[in-house]
């Protein structure tokens, strides 16, 4: 199989279902060898099954591609190391990490429990850290040994992480952390030949279909705006050699729309050139807010 990722090796986490599955198949169609990582857990992260990852591997092999399955926990430090080793053992190299794995434990903030908070932050934010950290250790060693490196980290943030979502405080916090992590990765890793970008996708998956009823599949031949397969072309391109000059960006993608997020920027300022008295601050803050653009609304408000 040939395409824009021919000869490259990609590791996709959470690739047994939904958007991750679409990524794995799309990379294979473009010539990449694929490590399909998935725990086979339920929507809330509980349970485990080798079935989903194995099914994707068989689908890739059935279309003439190369793939192997991996069932390690992305947020386990040693498991993430084994995941990276799986790529190196199976294919002799690793070029692309797509961090996609995650689950939901939605709850209004005042009702959220410590266990729910820890579980969501662990799989999303720590999972992104662990897998990328082990991959980057390999790429840095390659670079220091004088070998050429043209590697990619593609993270998965969310609109919830960029502007918040009612009932999803833990998920929003994790996805916001992932967006910022991407900026730091891009700034630090360019010297080793590694780019880092993130996507904020919107598509119909197990995680969204129960929340967003407008994502139902249309009848007939109408364009399915919410299909997870719509997300993957951007991700595959970001994993290709063509994207080597793009790093530190957060892309929003849904249906046929691709956008780039503007992110946090320095806004209006007032400098007194001396310490403020508390009773002076209110007038200054209100003047700043009059000059600043209105914030985007939190999802669900």
Summarize the structure in short.
The protein is α/β, with parallel strands linked by helices. The protein is 39% helix and 13% strand.
Furnish the topology, listing elements before pairings.
Blueprint: E1 9-12, H1 18-29, E2 33-37, H2 51-62, E3 67-70, H3 77-91, E4 96-98, H4 114-144, E5 151-156, H5 159-163, H6 169-189, E6 194-202, H7 232-239, E7 250-254, E8 257-260, H8 278-291
Parallel strand pairs: 1-2, 1-4, 2-3, 4-5, 5-6, 6-7
Antiparallel strand pairs: 7-8
Helix pairs in contact: 1-2, 1-7, 3-4, 4-6
Describe this protein's structure:
It is a single chain. With 301 residues, the chain is an alpha/beta fold. It has one domain (9-260): Rossmann fold. The chain contains 8 helices and 8 strands. It has helices at 18-29, 51-62, 77-91, 114-144, 159-163, 169-189, 232-239, 278-291; strands at residues 9-12, 33-37, 67-70, 96-98, 151-156, 194-202, 250-254, 257-260. Strands 3-2-1-4-5-6-7-8 form an 8-stranded mixed sheet, sandwiched between helices. Helix 1 packs parallel to helix 2 and helix 4 runs parallel beside helix 6. The N and C termini lie far apart (46 Å). The model has no long low-confidence stretch (mean pLDDT 93).
- CATH topology type: Rossmann fold
Helix content: 25-40%
CATH superfamily: NAD(P)-binding Rossmann-like Domain
Spatial sequence of strands, sheet with the most strands: 3-2-1-4-5-6-7-8
Stretches where pLDDT falls below 50 for ≥5 residues?
A: none
Work out the strand percent: 5-15%
In angstroms, what is the radius of gyration?
A: 21 Å
The largest sheet is: 8 strands, mixed
Distance between the termini: 46 Å
Basic shape:
globular
Query: Structural class of the secondary elements?
Result: alpha/beta
CATH architecture: 3-Layer(aba) Sandwich
Number of domains: 1
Mean pLDDT: 93
Instruction: List SSEs in N-to-C order.
Output: EHEHEHEHEHHEHEEH
What is the name of the CATH class? Answer: Alpha Beta
> Total helix count?
8
Total strands: the figure is 8
């Amino acid at each position: 199989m040939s395409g824009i990722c021919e000869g490259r090796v990609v590791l996709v986490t959470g690739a047994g279902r939904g958007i991750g599955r679409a990524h794995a198949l799309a990379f294979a169609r473009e010539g990449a060898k694929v490590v399909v990582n998935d725990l086979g857990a339920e929507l809330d992260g509980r349970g485990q099954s080798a079935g989903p990852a194995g099914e994707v591997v068989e689908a890739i092999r059935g279309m003439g591609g190369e793939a192997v399955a991996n069932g390690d926990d992305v947020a386990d430090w040693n498991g993430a190391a084994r995941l990276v080793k799986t790529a190196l053992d199976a294919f002799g190299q690793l070029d692309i990490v797509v961090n996609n794995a995650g689950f939901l434990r939605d709850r209004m903030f005042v009702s959220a429990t410590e266990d729910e908070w820890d579980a969501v932050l662990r799989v999303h934010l720590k999972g992104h850290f662990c897998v990328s950290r082990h991959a980057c250790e390999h790429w840095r060693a390659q670079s220091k040994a004088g070998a050429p490196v043209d590697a990619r980290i593609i993270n998965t943030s969310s609109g919830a992480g960029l502007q918040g979502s009612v009932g999803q405080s833990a998920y929003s916090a994790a996805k916001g952390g992932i967006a910022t992590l991407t900026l730091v990765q891009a700034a630090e890793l360019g010297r080793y030949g590694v780019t880092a970008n993130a996507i904020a996708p919107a598509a119909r998956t197990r995680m969204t279909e129960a929340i967003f009823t407008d994502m139902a599949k249309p009848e007939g031949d109408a364009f399915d705006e919410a299909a997870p397969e719509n997300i993957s072309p951007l991700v595959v391109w970001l994993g290709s050699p063509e994207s080597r000059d793009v790093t530190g960006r957060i892309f929003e993608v849904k249906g046929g729309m691709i956008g780039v997020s503007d992110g946090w920027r320095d806004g209006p300022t007032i400098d007194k050139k001396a310490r403020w008295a508390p009773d002076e601050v209110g007038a200054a803050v209100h003047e700043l807010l009059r000059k600043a653009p209105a914030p985007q609304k939190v999802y669900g408000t």
